[in-house]
Amino acid sequence: MTRLRGRISSRKQVRIGAPDASLTGASGMSAVTELVDKLGLVDALDGHVPAIKTRARGLSAGELVLAVTCAQLAGHDALVGLDRVRADVAGQELWPVAAPASTTTGALARRFTAAHVAGIEDAIAVVTSRWLRLLPARVRSPLVLRSPTIDLDSTEVEVFGRAKSGVAYNYVGQRAGRPHLASWAEAGLPLAADLLAGDQDVRPRCAGLLARAVACLPAAVCARPKVRADAGYFTAELAWAATGLGADYADAAKRNSAFWRELAAVPAGAWCPARDMHGAQVAVLDYAPAGWPPDAYTIVRHLR
């Protein structure tokens, strides 16, 4: 086999030199800026988040929150990412707000209190209602008329550095924080959130989080909410909170000895095929742990 001489390569040539300041890898931020303007996000944040400075100079509290959010959307997971954003001259033209220096951001972030965080949640509720009104009718109608599902989820974010505040070692030995989120599943939007330390249990706080999430649903959503949570939230407090808020709930149960006894007593004829789950069967048990609402029951699933 021979090679053809003189063949011109179709590969693009790579040029090495000084970066072109007129180019940016963050062109998608223009879509974010358009959305921010359309929803009036900055005004909503500034209207609900208390001021963090005595003089109206530089970024407001709402603009600071938005700048950090945009940095996260651009893929930066530390405050130093804001310095990289500032170095991107062309990219900054596309941002909804000017990116502050990382040192400035850190200093201002320390001024945030529980009232500021609550203000962010209130602003999100306002913006969510605006977003719903702007949707086409074919998209808005199902969200308004069908029961909204509120998902409760938590995860852990490992951090490094002894000086980190609000974090702790979790059960696997990682220094971590634990974000605790309530979201509107059908819309894919957050409603309320808490940031706990890695060793804090989410269960004592889930009822309050749920109440805030329901309050943040747009007034146009008129159907009865549904609450969905995994076994990490298995507590009667959540069930009672959902009942008191006029919501249905589904909470994954922890498997204990009482549960296994109830399962063993299910007659063979009580099982029926599960929808959209090949080979699975479900049955209803008249069982709930002590202290749960009187109308609580258990749905159990197994594979044949």
Summarize the model shown.
The protein is an alpha+beta fold and 304 residues long. It has three domains: 23-134, no CATH class; 146-252, Ribonuclease H-like superfamily/Ribonuclease H (Nucleotidyltransferase, domain 5, 2-Layer Sandwich), CATH 3.30.420.10; 253-304, no CATH class. The protein has helices spanning 29-39, 41-48, 61-73, 81-87, 89-92, 102-109, 114-134, 137-145, 203-216, 236-244, 257-264; strands spanning 149-154, 157-158, 168-169, 175-184, 189-197, 226-229, 248-251, 272-273, 280-285, 298-303.
Could you explain how this protein is built, in words?
The protein has helices spanning 29-39, 41-48, 61-73, 81-87, 89-92, 102-109, 114-134, 137-145, 203-216, 236-244, 257-264; strands at 149-154, 157-158, 168-169, 175-184, 189-197, 226-229, 248-251, 272-273, 280-285, 298-303. With 304 residues, the chain is an alpha+beta fold. It has 3 domains: 23-134, no CATH class; 146-252, Nucleotidyltransferase, domain 5 (2-Layer Sandwich), CATH 3.30.420.10; 253-304, no CATH class. Strands 1, 2, 3, 4, 5, 6 and 7 form a 7-stranded mixed β-sheet that branches. The chain has a 3-stranded antiparallel β-sheet with strand order 8-9-10, with no helix packed on it. A hairpin with a 6-residue loop joins strand 8 and strand 9 (280-285). Helix 9 packs parallel to helix 10. The longest helix has 21 residues, at 114-134. The protein starts with 28 loop residues before the first helix and ends with a strand.
